Amino acid sequence: MSTRRPAALAVSVLLTFLATLPVARGAEASGDLAPLEGTWSGRIGWKGDTVDLRLEWTSESGRSTFRERRTVPLAELTGADPGSFSRPWAPLHFEWSRDAGKLDFTGEGAWFFRPGGKFTFQPDPGFAEKVRAAGALRTDPRTLFFMALQTTPVSLVSALGKLGYEDVDIDDVVRLGRHGIDGDYVAAAAELGERPDLDEIDRLHSRGVSAEDLRSFAANGLGGIDAESLMRLKSQGIDAAWVAAMASAGLGTDDVEALVRLHQHGVSPDEATGYLLAKGIDVDTEGMIRLKSAGVSPGYLQEITSSGVAQPDIEKVIRLQQRGIDPATARDLAALGFTDIEGIVRLRSQGVSADEIAGFRKAGYGDLDVEDLVRLHTHGVDPAFAAKLTAGGISGLSVDDLIRLHQSGDADRLIRNQEK
């Protein structure tokens, strides 16, 4: 079952009918546009500032009757006296000027019934010429009358012609005008570079992409973006300045979904720039999102990757940050040869510092690995103990021997024996 709205269906049927009517080509080309006549009835709106107009006219052959209903602001009806509408037999005469032509209304007021009378539509020759310049197929009075009723602005017709839209269909022009699209909007869409078709223009407008949005994207050097991408960005509240800043960071509009995901997760252009500046690590869109969600700042990432640690990746950097290891600590441990991130995490989680490692090396124990250092630290063996033994002539001990001497308390006795 069709769900098409009756009004939209009536518009389509009328336009289809108009397209089948014969036109005197000589008269059309010469600008001899005869007036179109019909009858009208109307009533002042309940707020007193509008008129509910009902128009009726027949086809040239007299075989078809058409009806249209429009609610028109009273201010647009020149000469309309709202009080006369409800006074029986009061003369009514007012005009409604549209870009496509002028409607002249005459009639009488009524108290019980709807006031009404006759109307005459006089097409505007200048508007008709602009329609022809745009490549539209018909500019007969009936078509122009319908364009007037549908509020088709002359700026729209002019813009289509100037921008090179050829063989446009009247149905499309009327539809754009009915949806509030004027010449300025079409011109703004054309500034993007690759001229969108009329359906794309209609969809851009319906999705809330304004003329200002279109010009902003063009002004920010993003003219190559397509209509679908624009609508997707607009739906996410992403403006041209944000997209341009991301493009400067190295993230172009070729992957709009990546931009959307970054925006959704709060990754700013400055943060994206910072993440991408980190050396020795590959950071893609998902990597930025992961770093952002883990609380890793671009500055931290840059300092860690330049600290000398080996083969940093996203997850390892996050581990360092979550374990509270600052870049300075990572740099000091890397300078002592401990460049493996897992080893750095192990040392710091057990409280082994760079100073402690340096102390053992000064005492002659420069070949201790991560687990050796952890064992010594957990058993309370510090560099001072090792240095005392070395100074007493006892050196080159194994880790087990150092721990055993420390636990037994025999270090001083051994040193005295060594001195004898």
Quick summary:
Helix content is 51%, strand content 13%. The chain has 420 residues and is α+β, with helices and mostly antiparallel strands. The longest helix is centred in the first third of the chain and has 15 residues, at 6-20.
Q: What average pLDDT do the residues reach?
A: 88
| Rg computed from alpha carbons, rounded to a whole number of angstroms | 41 Å
Proportion of strand residues: 5-15%
Structural class: alpha+beta
Explained architecture:
The protein contains 24 helices and seven strands. Residues 1-31 have low confidence and may be disordered. It is an alpha+beta fold. The protein has a seven-stranded antiparallel β-sheet. The chain has helices spanning 6-20, 25-30, 82-85, 125-133, 141-149, 154-162, 170-178, 183-190, 198-206, 211-219, 227-235, 240-249, 256-264, 269-277, 285-293, 298-305, 314-322, 327-335, 341-349, 354-362, 370-378, 383-391, 399-408, 411-419; strands spanning 36-44, 50-58, 65-73, 77-78, 91-98, 101-108, 116-123.
Summary tags:
420 residues; rod-shaped; alpha+beta; 24 helices; 7-stranded antiparallel β-sheet; 51% helix; 7 strands; disordered N terminus
Topology:
Layout: H1 6-20, H2 25-30, E1 36-44, E2 50-58, E3 65-73, E4 77-78, H3 82-85, E5 91-98, E6 101-108, E7 116-123, H4 125-133, H5 141-149, H6 154-162, H7 170-178, H8 183-190, H9 198-206, H10 211-219, H11 227-235, H12 240-249, H13 256-264, H14 269-277, H15 285-293, H16 298-305, H17 314-322, H18 327-335, H19 341-349, H20 354-362, H21 370-378, H22 383-391, H23 399-408, H24 411-419
Helix pairs in contact: 4-6, 6-8, 7-9, 8-10, 9-11, 12-14, 13-15, 14-16, 17-19, 19-21, 20-22
